[in-house]
Amino acid sequence: MRSKKIITERNLELSKQIDKRRIPEHIAIIMDGNGRWATKKGLPRSFGHNKGVSVLKEIIKAAKNLGCRVLTVYAFSTENWTRPAKEVDYLINLFGKVLRKEIDEIHKESIKIKFIGDLSPFPETLKLVLKSSESITQNNQNFILNVCVNYGGRQEIVKVAKEIALKSFTGEIKASEVNEELFNSELLTKGVKDPELLIRTSGEKRISNFLLWQLAYSEIYITDVLWPDFNEVEFLKAIIDYQSRNRRFGGIESLPNESFEDSYCS
Ligand code: IPE
Ligand code: IPE
Ligand code: MG
């Protein structure tokens, strides 16, 4: 009870530091550390995955309340198939179970859910649940939740290259027409702007094959907090950190009333 009160007070304190006009529109999250969280507590890794689901629910709510429009979360990578079959099966079952339980609430909250990745290796029953969740929520306008499952950034880029090669072969497009815009239009995230912010929990300083194209200019925030311990307070800290960054996109920070000649010697 007392710790809940402290968290709420900290939330309020952090919320005041946030510039509501500069909330990232699209946030991507590598939700890492479920296994380590459980192992540290002497529990099976599955407990970490379960706790991770409730954290995701809290962060969706927090992102939505802040005015963020899109959340893209990494739930299962193309490399995660190398884990023991028992863990892979557990995760696949968990996706279906959580979705069946939460879909009404997701729809009520006007969230449009999309699954990004190659769904073909998943069991038919799971594919049905994923596809029906997408179609139930397809016209929702408040918020987009992209869940990356069996997703790999390199595989996505290869897939786009294949589509473009095919269109060029059939004469639908000319090679000279291949540009970033066309490439974007073939991505699994088409229609959604690139994430301004990438959050990775549990300290690993790598991208692990996530959104390789889309993260080209995203700000990266890495926290040592394990995903099951992540919460609204930690999320607000990430936004505050993001807002302190100087996003130059290869340019230079403009100084008022100073020309190029004033600031550089010849
Ligand atoms: C992230 O947590 C969830 C998935 C990759 C599915 P991990 O399961 O990778 O947890 P750690 O990194 O082993 O602690
Ligand atoms: C990245 O986490 C994938 C997901 C969060 C789904 P991993 O735990 O699989 O990444 P590595 O193995 O640390 O690179
Ligand atoms: Mg991990």
Note down, in words, how this protein is organized.
This protein has about 270 residues and is of the alpha/beta class. The protein has a domain at about 25-150 and about 195-245: Undecaprenyl pyrophosphate synthetase. About 45% of the residues lie in helices and about 15% in strands. It is built from nine helices and six strands; from the N terminus they run H-E-H-H-E-H-E-H-E-H-H-E-E-H-H. It has helices spanning about 1-15, 35-40, 45-65, 85-110, 125-135, 155-170, 180-185, 230-245, 260-265; strands at about 25-30, 70-75, 110-115, 145-150, 195-200, 220. The protein has a six-stranded parallel β-sheet, with helices on both faces. Strand 3, helix 5 and strand 4 form a beta-alpha-beta unit. Helix 1 (about 1-15) packs parallel to helix 8 (about 230-245), helix 2 packs across helix 3 (about 45-65) and helix 4 (about 85-110) runs parallel beside helix 5. It is globular and about 65 Å long. The protein starts with a helix and ends with a helix.
